[in-house]
Amino acid sequence: MALILETRNLTKRFGGLTAVDRVHLKLDEGELRCIIGPNGCGKTTLFNLISGFYKPTEGQVLYNGQDITGKAVYAISELGIGRKFQVPSVFNQLTVYENVRVPFYFRHRHSKAEEAHQEIMSLLAKVNLSDRREDLAINLAHGEKQWLEIGMVLASKPRLMLLDEPTAGMTVGETSKTAQLIRSISQETGISILVIEHDISFVREIAGRITVMYKGALFKEGSYEEIQTDAEVREIYLGRQKKC
Question: Is residue 126, in this structure, part of any structural domain at all?
Answer without folding.
Answer: no
